[in-house]
Specification:
- By secondary structure, the chain is of the alpha+beta class.
- The protein has two domains: 2-93, no CATH class; 98-212, no CATH class.
- It is 66% helix and 15% strand.
- It has six helices and four strands; from the N terminus they run ααααββββαα.
- It has a four-stranded antiparallel β-sheet.
- The chain is rod-shaped and about 105 Å long.
- Residues 18-29 and 158-169 have low confidence and may be disordered.
């Protein structure tokens, strides 16, 4: 949507600065007509002089007008960037104020996924399939790293994506892929730690059963 506004503003600026009055040159009387009819010759000369005066008085595009056009165009672009930044910032603040927030996840099978959910100040790993099941809670250093990684990813994710040219989007997409890859690595590490904890709990339960026997 903002890209359309930018294109429209550019077209308006160009069209506004290119309105020049163009006059068609009317043919003057020939030499023969001038010799035969002196009055017609004098009228032709008078008409030519009027046309020259009108052409000389026609508005032209000066260097100052070009500078004003460029300044107006840059001003419109600056306002659009400021508006976009404000909207993104407002959106992030509203998202942070949500009580329940989905930070992301990954598919682990057909219609099954594992999601990281933030509830208040707590992070939980839940399994989503035929039903929703709480798998584990992320605490300590892992929680802080995950939140920091998520904030950085949201901050850099398409901040000026709507109005940036395509070649700049390619450059920023590489950076976004890097953040996404790091987030997935951190998420996978938390999943592995959760599996190890579960295995340790199962082993401890088996030991307790053997002791009771």
């Amino acid at each position: 949507m903002l890209r359309k506004f930018v294109i429209a503003a550019l077209l308006i600026s160009v069209l506004a600065g290119s309105n020049q009055i163009v006059y068609a040159e009317s043919g003057s009387a020939s030499v023969k007509e001038c010799l035969e009819k002196t009055e017609k010759c004098s009228e032709s000369k008078s008409t030519d002089s009027k046309e020259k005066t009108e052409l000389q008085g026609a508005p032209t595009l000066s260097a100052g007008d070009i500078v004003k056009m460029i300044f107006a165009f840059l001003l419109v672009i600056g306002l659009l960037f400021a508006l976009l930044k404000f909207v993104n910032k407002k959106g992030r603040l509203l998202q942070k104020n949500k009580v329940v927030q989905n930070l992301g996840g990954t598919n682990v099978g057909s219609s099954k996924s594992v999601q990281v959910v933030k509830v208040g100040n707590q992070l939980f790993i839940i399994g989503v399939g035929e039903n929703v099941q709480l798998l584990s809670e992320i605490t300590g250093q892992g929680k802080q790293q995950l939140l920091t990684q998520y904030d950085e990813q949201q901050k850099n994710e398409g901040e000026y994506k709507v109005v940036l040219p395509s070649f700049l989007e390619k450059l920023t997409s590489k950076k976004e892929e890097k953040f996404s890859h790091s987030f997935q690595q951190l998420f996978q590490r938390e999943m592995n730690e959760m599996k190890i904890k579960r295995q340790n709990v199962l082993k401890e339960l088996e030991r307790n059963k053997k002791k009771d026997e």
